[in-house]
Each structure stands twice: as structure tokens, then as C-alpha cells.
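Work Package 4 report. The design task specified in the project plan requires that, given a folded chain encoded as C-alpha cells, an amino acid be chosen for each position. We show below one input record used in the internal validation round.
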């Protein structure tokens, strides 16, 4: 973080001139044909993702408020659901940022003096890194529970979540503190951090995205290997064939999310880094990569609500769950498969292995 400290203390950071106007060469006026087509695609995809994330937020908010109708304990104590809720909040802000592109289509220009330019920069500056950081926290939380059988206290959990949002606020305050009102300027097809501000680009944005991609892939790779090893050990002990087959499927699902997240976020980040190196990609490239990034909200919603046969929200009500550590173990050896699956201890708020004898389905929710 020394680079970020030097950035804040440096007086040599150039600031855009305060007389920027519609005629400023930094404005995009009028939009080119490629930019119009690209912004139409970005806006439409952002609208779909925003609808998905808002639906998830409304559903979870309803369950948070009226939890007594469905659960024995407040849903806010379910750490997994709270993390998903905060991830959806970050995704929604990212979608809102890209949807401001509708304003540029209406005006046929992207201008720095328009208040929507400032708002777009703020929302993208918060949404992009914060969605990645909550993905990272979910990965760390899962690894601690499954690999170390570590139970985080609710107070510490709340502290971590609040601290993340405070950090997210700092990420957009720092560019404003350094560059002032003109921290966000037209960049290719939408507004973002003023072009040429390498330290701001890296330390307040893309460093955290790349960190999330790297650490998350490492953690889920380790989880995947451990689950597969436990599956093999259970098979040697004569575990039920159907149960082991479902566990193989679960082990495969565990690596889908980090792979999808990386695929969706790398292109835009790589394009920005290439621009800093003097090899600026085409406008079409940036619009396509921006469209991919704004798909994050839709994919998050699908992966956390529709891709599972049984919802984590039903875990306490059904009473048919056992902790993941019961199956994966943390130094206690491998249990006989049927015994592990027969446990019915329900701990809402923790990654679980859920067993449904009627459907012979075993799910690891993470």
C-alpha cells in the first residue's frame, strides 16, 4: 500500500483544468457508430442484470424482515446469505453505473461537465472492486469453514462487512481528493477515472480486481482438491454410489464461480492495463468487455439462487443438513459415508452439506 500512500502525499498529480466544457477535446461529441452500438449493448445487459439483482435484493430483504415466518433464528445471522446480499448490492451499483450510458445515447455525447458523468464514475468505482472483494470474502469464508472448521463470530463478521463498505467509500473518495470535481472524465465510451492517472487506476481499482481473481482461484482450487480427496476416501470405505456421484457434481460446481468471475472481469481490466502500456484496444473491445463485466450481477443471481436444487434459505426449516466439516473433516479422519450423511445438525449461517433422502441429493452450499 506504499504506492497508494505516495499517491495521496504527492503534489505532482496533474489535475484536469477547471474550465472543461462541451468543447473540451476530452469530451466524446458526437458518439461514433461503434460507440453507439457498444453503449446500446452495455445498457441493455446492465438493465437485465439490474433487474436480476434487484429481484434478489427484494426477496432477501423480505426474508430478512419477516424471518419469523420461515426460520427459527434471524436470517441476518446466516453469514452466507448476508454476504450474497452485499454482493448483490455491489453488483446493483455496477449495473446502475453502466445504465447511465442511456444518457449518453440520448445526448449523443459523453461530456465531462454533465453531472451524470460524475455519478457514473462513482458507481463504477464502487461497484467494480466491491463486487470482487465480496467474492473474495465468500471464498475466504468458505475456505475457513470447510478446510479449517473455523467458526467466525457474528460480531467479527459484522465488523468485516462494515469495514469492507468503509473501504469501498474510500476507493471513490481518494480520486476526488486527488483530482477534485474532475476525477471522472470520458474514457472511450463512458466516464471513469481521468485518463493517464496510473496510480489511481491501479491502487483504487484494478489492483483489488486482480487480487480477487488470483486469491479466489487459489482458494477454490484448494477446496476442489480437498473435496475430491475426501470423495476418494469415502469411496474406498464403500460409500453409497448415488451419494458419491452427487458429491462429484458438487466438487465440479465449486470451481464454476471463480472461473466465470475471472472470464467476465479480465477483458476490461486487461484492456485498461494495455492502454497504460500504450497499446489501446479498439472501442468495440472496450464495449464488449464492459458488457461482459456488467453480466456479473446476472450470473451472481443465477449461481446463488437457481443453480442449486435446494436453497440455503431452507436449511433450518427442513432440518436435513450437516456441516461441511462433518464430511470434509479437519483432522478427525474420514467418517463412514452413511453416518456422515445421517447427521441432522443444522447451523444456519454456515456452509453446509445438505442431504435429502427423498431425492438422494447432496449439496454443498458455499
Amino acid at each position: 500500500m506504499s504506492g497508494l500512500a505516495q499517491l495521496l502525499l504527492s503534489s505532482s498529480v496533474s489535475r484536469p483544468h477547471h474550465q472543461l466544457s462541451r468543447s473540451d477535446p476530452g469530451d466524446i461529441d458526437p458518439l461514433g457508430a461503434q460507440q453507439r452500438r457498444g453503449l446500446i449493448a452495455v445498457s441493455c445487459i446492465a438493465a437485465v442484470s439490474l433487474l436480476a439483482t434487484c429481484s434478489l435484493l427484494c426477496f432477501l430483504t423480505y426474508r430478512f424482515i419477516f424471518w419469523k415466518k420461515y426460520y427459527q433464528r434471524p436470517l441476518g445471522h446466516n453469514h452466507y446469505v448476508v454476504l450474497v446480499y452485499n454482493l448483490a448490492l455491489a453488483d446493483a451499483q455496477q449495473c446502475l453505473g453502466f445504465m447511465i450510458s442511456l444518457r449518453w445515447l440520448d445526448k449523443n455525447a459523453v461530456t465531462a461537465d454533465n453531472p451524470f458523468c460524475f455519478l457514473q464514475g462513482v458507481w463504477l468505482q464502487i461497484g467494480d472492486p466491491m463486487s470482487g472483494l465480496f467474492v473474495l470474502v465468500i471464498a475466504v469464508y468458505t475456505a475457513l469453514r470447510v478446510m479449517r472448521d473455523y467458526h467466525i463470530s457474528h460480531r467479527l463478521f459484522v465488523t468485516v462487512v462494515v469495514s469492507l463498505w468503509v473501504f469501498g467509500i474510500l476507493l471513490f473518495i481518494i480520486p476526488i481528493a486527488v483530482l477534485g470535481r474532475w476525477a471522472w472524465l470520458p474514457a472511450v465510451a463512458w466516464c471513469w477515472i481521468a485518463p493517464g492517472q496510473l496510480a489511481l487506476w491501479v491502487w483504487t481499482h484494478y489492483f483489488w480486481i486482480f487480487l480477487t481473481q488470483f486469491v479466489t482461484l487459489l482458494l477454490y482450487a484448494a477446496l476442489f482438491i480437498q473435496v475430491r480427496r475426501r470423495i476418494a476416501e469415502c469411496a474406498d470405505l464403500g460409500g453409497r454410489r448415488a451419494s458419491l456421484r452427487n458429491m462429484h457434481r458438487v466438487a465440479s460446481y465449486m470451481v464454476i464461480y471463480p472461473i466465470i468471475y475471472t472470464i467476465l472481469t479480465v477483458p476490461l481490466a486487461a484492456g485498461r492495463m494495455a492502454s497504460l502500456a500504450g497499446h489501446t484496444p479498439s472501442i468495440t473491445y472496450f464495449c464488449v468487455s464492459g458488457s461482459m463485466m456488467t453480466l456479473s450481477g446476472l450470473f451472481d443471481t443465477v449461481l446463488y439462487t437457481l443453480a442449486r436444487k435446494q436453497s440455503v434459505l431452507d436449511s433450518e426449516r427442513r432440518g436435513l443438513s450437516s456441516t461441511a466439516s462433518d464430511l470434509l473433516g479437519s483432522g478427525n479422519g474420514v467418517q463412514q459415508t452413511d453416518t456422515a450423511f445421517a447427521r441432522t445438525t443444522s447451523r444456519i449461517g454456515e456452509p453446509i452439506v445438505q442431504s435429502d433422502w427423498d431425492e438422494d441429493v447432496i449439496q454443498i452450499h458455499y
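The longest helix spans residues 198-236. Validation will be extended to a larger panel in the next phase.
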